[in-house]
Specification:
heterodimer; A: 793 residues; alpha/beta; 24% helix; 20% strand; B: alpha+beta; three-stranded antiparallel beta sheet; 7 strands; 22% helix; elongated
Chain lengths: 793, 175
């Protein structure tokens, strides 16, 4: 369709909005209410422009202007909001005329009438759309001499989000966001006219993606409480990186100031997370700035850990290692270690001639699918079967499934990026809930949006999958048929299935039988990458749980805390060498001979592979970590002590190795990452519990760091023990009780949350890296009610 | 050149012998500082409420060409506010060695909280003593860090070597 914007002629696809035509032409109009990936509604009236189009006669020919001999342009009588205007053949858009400028300037003045102009105290100042647009399009002075509207200045919308009602300009982005993107209608306009304010009827914001409204708010009305007053926008160092909180590989911007992370914002990755991130990722960064981080290496001298230099620590380790024979050393990484760290660990294991190397948590079956689904496959799928608690495991999967329910394909990128106003999106669109089937051992969040949901008894994944494959039940038959019939079907498999090799195989069979693609939700950020790089034990007996129970005589663990288990702690005491590379002192560092400072996921440089198989760069934010290094740094220091230049001694060295095996230069990855095919690794050696009275479930917020994330802690109430109210009554527990309890040998501190959504006879508690998803025995006799209210560490 | 010219020059010299001298015997005598002289900064308070004028917005730090200012803000306790408004400066530091006394901070300040005063005797011995914090600059504090240290040691009042005319921006500052 031919469109003319001022003096630029464009040929755009039908259905494009006029505002996108203007931006595609390289011109600019101000706007506050339009937002990428959300419906345009024309609420702010800022994008006004003079718009006209030619008309056709009855015979199909253009109505001609006799004076010029050209088709006559009929202008709309008033300036039009370009965000809600679709382009037409021959449309003329004028953004430079005096009429347009007067209309835009007038709207700007209207917006500022009730805006408090407290920019110096506002956290948005310096990165505020209203501020920028007022500077560009405003008149620079105010004719409004009356008292401005006064309203609540800092209303805590939830523990995580602060609302300033005076600053709100009623663009409706946040209200629409909740309905359109996560599908939770929790915010709305209350009252009318100048008295309008946004609010919620419920306590807090019961959504898993509430933080995104702080990114899209065009003014400083909605602010991230974790970074409230911490710094001004121009003072932050912005680092674009990849989130290591889950396996989605969501793009984030880390804002740090004076060596401290102050906030996390969503960054754009059109292929993965679009503009959005979940609350666990956004607000779960405070632990990295904790004052109790380990900042220097420590060596145990006379039974006490004492700070030493890296040289002294690694010299001690190297002396001990020299006394070991082959296959006596165990090396274990947490599954959010970068690819480079994995390679470094492998090269160290090879040099020290040990096959005992593993990453943990991982599942009994591979997370690398033979026919993997990408996020865009998921968002455009015609049938989706989720056998997982996707919202908690990889929240982005939940969000992209909701894209599929809307039935609108991801927009085509334009010259200026993502279309600002995608006219295919509407407010309160009908959702195709019947394409979504969800099965889980308890009621999961996604079931609210699914037409077909099934809560099966814990541990019966194999039976459930058999029913579907054999089409032996009506529901199973219908599901199998819908997966086969759909042009694009995706099966999402989570921890409950992947934990069982048999169920996992059945699920793969189901995918083969129906032609569906499979998305396997890895346990942690780099489960896929570490498996594909074969950071796995040489034989089943050398897996991480075996290392802990005696197969290793010396152990190097990075990011894991096995001694939480009292039994394992006893076994660890017998080790000749225990090296712990971690952020904080914990049960395992209390036993360790050497403790080394580690980098958090925000400080590392490296690469992770998300659940699609997409290689994404992790970039280091300028954070004060003392002498902390990642595992490649540890390999370098140890190599120095051993007088060896070990491979993987730096990120660069690890990337040189990876370039050979992957044929991919990881230092030159595009921002959106690169998908490369990968083969499933030989995963083995993990036994899963098949009985127990409690189920460890995945959690969006990292339970291991929750007590150091003060705001998330306040918002979630701490790690929760969820159980049926009837069970709670029989165990003499009531809501908000804080208990300490022994769960499978781990001493856990939990707050009781009775909930009808939990099946009777089952208790749910969040998994830990060392206590991954699965059944576990909770010792009811060990429940101790703590008298004091739980305090934030 | 004639003898007459020499006599004329000498006349000027002789004339000054009988005029009041310009020289001040500083430090015995105070220096007369012009009202718009830019010396050590003062952080002002609202005279009526005694609340700090500074709201911790960091605009002074942004305007500072010498990167001499560091501000960290925090939220006011509504029951016991430090400043008027939601936000106050929990840390406010100026490195007097970096500062070039240009007055940009004063121009940038939206509340008139920071004003360059007339004190100029900032000499000290250690680098760290040139980093002035809030207690060193809040209105009511007289003298440089060294002067106050010295006064405390001797148990006397702080003596600053200047006298100056009033400047309306320096609300509540008394030299």
């Amino acid at each position: 369709m031919k469109v003319k914007v001022n003096d630029v002629e464009l040929d755009l696809a039908p259905g494009t909005s006029a505002i996108d035509a203007v931006f595609a032409a390289g011109y600019d109009v101000p706007y506050f209410c339009s937002q990428e990936y959300m419906s345009p509604i024309g609420a702010c009236r800022m994008c006004l422009a003079v718009v006209g189009a030619p008309r056709k006669e009855r015979d199909g020919s253009w109505t001609m202007d006799e004076a010029t001999g050209q088709p006559k342009i009929f202008y709309f009588p008033n300036p039009m909001a370009t965000c809600t205007t679709a382009i037409m053949e021959g449309m003329v858009i004028d953004t430079l005329s005096d009429v347009t400028k007067k209309a835009q300037g007038g709207m700007m003045e209207m917006h500022l009438i009730n805006h408090p102009l407290d920019c110096p105290t506002c956290d948005k100042g310096g990165a505020c759309e209203l501020q920028d647009r007022a500077y560009e399009y405003g008149s620079g002075h105010s004719r409004f001499i009356f008292d401005k509207r006064h309203n609540e200045k800092h209303h805590a919308l939830s523990e995580l989000i602060t609302l300033d009602r005076e600053r709100c300009i009623h663009c409706k982005r946040c209200v629409r966001y909740f309905e359109e993107v996560p599908g939770d209608e929790v915010l709305d306009f209350i009252e009318r006219g100048g008295h309008t304010f946004i609010g919620t009827v419920e306590e807090g914001l019961p959504s898993n993606f509430s933080g995104n409204i702080t990114d899209i708010c065009p003014v400083g009305a909605l602010l991230d409480t974790t970074s409230r007053f911490r710094g001004r926008n121009w003072e932050y160092d912005h680092t674009r990186s990849t989130s290591l909180d889950d396996a989605s590989g969501s793009a984030i911007t880390i804002d740090a100031r004076t060596g401290r992370i102050e906030r996390i914002k969503a960054a754009l990755n059109t292929q993965v997370n679009k503009n959005w991130i979940d609350d666990g990722t956004r607000f779960g960064h405070e632990y990295a700035a904790s004052s109790d981080r380990i900042k220097t290496p420590m060596l145990r001298k006379n039974g006490k850990l004492e700070p030493v230099t890296w040289e002294e620590a690694t010299l001690f380790i190297s002396e001990k290692l020299k006394k070991l024979s082959d296959n006596q050393l165990g090396i274990a990484l947490r599954s959010d270690a970068t690819l480079e760290e994995g390679v470094a660990a492998k090269s160290l294991a090879e040099y020290l001639k040990t096959g005992q190397i593993d990453h943990y948590p991982r599942y009994a079956s591979s997370v690398i699918s033979a026919n993997p689904a990408s996020f865009n496959d998921l968002a455009t799928a015609g049938a989706i079967f989720v056998m997982a608690d996707a919202t908690e495991e990889v929240p982005m999967v939940d969000l992209r499934i909701k894209d599929a329910l809307k039935g609108v394909t991801p927009p085509t990128l334009m010259a200026h990026g993502v279309p600002i106003a995608d006219l295919r999106l509407k407010e309160r669109m009908p959702r195709k809930t019947n394409i979504l089937s969800v099965a889980a051992p308890y009621r999961v969040d996604l079931m609210k949006y699914a037409a077909h949901s099934m809560v099966y008894p814990t541990g019966t994944e194999v039976e459930v999958l058999k029913q579907i494959i054999d089409a032996s039940t009506d529901a199973g038959k219908a599901l199998k048929e819908s997966l086969s019939a759909a042009e694009k079907a995706v099966i999402v498999l989570g921890a409950f299935v992947l934990n069982s090799a048999e169920a996992s195989k059945l699920a793969d069979d189901l995918a083969k039988a129906t032609g569906a693609k499979v998305m396997k939700l890895g346990a942690m950020a780099n489960s896929f990458g570490l498996e594909s790089q074969d950071v796995l034990p040489a034989k089943a007996d050398y897996s991480y749980p075996n290392m802990l129970s005696g197969s290793a005589k010396a152990l190097i663990v990075s990011g894991l805390n096995p001694a939480q288990n009292a039994e394992v702690a006893q076994a660890l005491l017998k080790l000749e060498l225990l090296v712990v590379h971690d952020l904080f002192e914990n049960e395992t560092t209390a036993l360790a001979h050497v403790v080394l400072p580690a980098k958090s996921g925000y400080e590392k440089e490296g690469t992770v592979v998300n659940l699609e198989g997409r290689y994404l760069n992790v970039n280091p934010a300028p954070v004060d970590g003392g002498q902390a290094v990642d595992f490649t740094g540890f390999v370098k220091e140890l190599g120095d002590a051993l007088n060896e230049r070990l491979e993987g001694r730096s990120v660069r060295s690890a990337r040189r190795l990876l370039k050979k095996s992957l044929e991919l230069d990881l230092s030159e990855l595009p921002l959106e990452g690169t998908i490369a095919s990968a083969k499933a690794g030989k995963v083995a050696g993990l036994k899963t519990n098949t009985s127990g009275n409690a189920l460890l479930v995945p959690s969006m917020v990292r339970s291991e760091y929750l007590n150091r994330n003060a705001h998330l802690f306040a918002s979630t109430g701490g790690n929760a023990l969820r159980l049926h109210p009837a069970d709670a009554a029989s165990h003499n527990l009531s809501a908000h009780d804080v208990i300490s309890v022994s769960v499978g040998g781990f001493k856990r501190r939990l707050s009781v949350q009775p909930s009808e959504s939990v099946p009777e006879g089952m208790m749910l508690l969040p998994a830990l890296p060392d206590q991954p998803v699965g059944l576990v025995q909770l010792d009811l006799n060990s429940i101790k009610k703590e008298q004091v209210a739980l305090e934030v560490a | 050149m004639s003898v007459f010219e020499i006599a004329k020059g000498m006349g000027v010299t002789l004339g000054h012998l009988f005029k009041k001298p310009v020289t001040v015997t500083y430090p015995e005598q105070p220096v007369d500082v012009k009202p718009r002289f830019r010396g050590r900064h003062h952080l002002l308070r609202h005279p009526d409420t005694n609340l700090e004028k500074c709201i911790g917005c960091s605009l002074c730090a942004a305007a500072c060409p010498a990167y001499a200012i560091y501000v960290e803000a925090a939220e006011n306790d509504p029951n016991n506010p430090t400043s008027a408004g939601e936000r106050y400066a929990s840390i406010y530091e100026i490195n007097m060695l970096r500062c070039i006394f240009c007055g940009f901070c004063e121009e940038a300040c939206p509340t008139g909280a920071i004003v360059l005063g007339h004190e100029f005797e900032l000499a000290d011995f250690k680098y760290q003593d040139f980093v002035y914090g809030k207690p060193d600059m809040l209105v009511g504090t007289k003298g440089s860090k060294w002067q106050r240290r010295e006064a405390e040691k001797k148990g006397k009042d702080v003596k600053i070597g200047l006298k100056s005319g009033p400047r309306p921006e320096l609300e509540g500052v008394d030299y």
